[in-house]
Amino acid sequence: MQQTQNVALPSVGVIGLGSMGMGIARSLLRAGFDTWGCDLSESARSSFAADGGHVAQSPAALGERVDVLFCVVVNARQAQEVLLGEQGACTRMAPGGVVIQCATCAPDAVRALAAPLEALGLSLIDAPISGGAVKAAAGELTVMASGGAEAFDKAAGALDAVSARLFRLGEAIGAGSQVKLVNQLLAGVHIAAAAEAMAYGISGGCDPDALFEVITASAGNSWMFENRVPHILHADYSPRSAVDIFVKDLGLVHESALGRKFPLPLTAQALSMFTQASAMGLGGEDDAAVVKIFPGVQLPKAKEA
């Protein structure tokens, strides 16, 4: 993240003040942007207001105030509603505004937003994000973006404020979302593999802490193993990214591949594992909780302070 220049800055809005959206909104505030936030949660709105942000009670009210809008909701249905629904932000944004759509969606769903926004005189940047809540809070997200050059120029300062890496993947809307689905395929498969490996090792008598230490120093390590296994070691399943997020995202990956008859055997197995975890009542827990699907494994208990 670079320092924003001391020039007139656009007013920026964030719809969806969850773990990712709140980090984006706070990063924009730190960079000096006049920042508006909107969320269904009263506590999220109050928290952002306490940080010095402006709060809008509806997407439409936010749309009246901003030039650049980040949409950081859960899925395509929510994005459609908050942008173009009866109280949608885009129905009130002034022509010339830019919408940065960050939700993980199928490429076709994002492409479906482009024409209605263009008809309103607005530009769309297809910009899924990666990095989790910690990177969002630090303004160090990875952004996989596609859209027109003029839209990128208008939103350049805001994108710089929230990202460490911005990948411009061409002008075609949907290109960013397709790359994000590849990322989610790998992330989901790696989490599932890490959980399976830990369960297998523990069931064979390995000490969980020693196993983690050895693997993170060996060729079998992965970023997800190193990041998620400590959640298992500390029996801390408070959600940073929930099991149900990967039920959704791997479902999108699998569905998009079925549409062109492209086989994804590892994705299918990982999706089955996360779906099983969700069916066991673990959908709201951290995605590392997929380790709990393996029977007869004595997982670590929470360590005493």
TrEMBL record:
Catalyzed reaction equations: L-threonate + NAD(+) = 2-dehydro-L-erythronate + NADH + H(+)
InterPro entries per the UniProt record, alphabetical: 6-PGluconate_DH-like_C_sf, 6PGD_dom2, 6PGDH_NADP-bd, HIBADH-like_NADP-bd, HIBADH-related, LtnD, NAD(P)-bd_dom_sf
Domain 6-phosphogluconate dehydrogenase NADP-binding: 12-169
One annotated GO molecular function: NAD binding
Active site: 180
Enzyme Commission number, as recorded: 1.1.1.411
Keyword check for Oxidoreductase: yes
Keyword annotations from UniProtKB, A to Z: Carbohydrate metabolism, NAD, NADP, Oxidoreductase
Residue ranges of every copy of the 3-hydroxyisobutyrate dehydrogenase-like NAD-binding domain listed in the record: 174-293
Matching SUPFAM superfamilies: 6-phosphogluconate dehydrogenase C-terminal domain-like, NAD(P)-binding Rossmann-fold domains
Entry's transmembrane regions: none
The keyword ATP-binding is assigned to this record: no
NCBIfam families from the UniProt entry: ThreonDh
Stated role: Catalyzes oxidation of L-threonate to 2-oxo-tetronate. Can use either NAD(+) or NADP(+) as cosubstrate, with a preference for NAD(+).
Family from the record: Belongs to the HIBADH-related family. L-threonate dehydrogenase subfamily.
Name the record gives this protein: L-threonate dehydrogenase
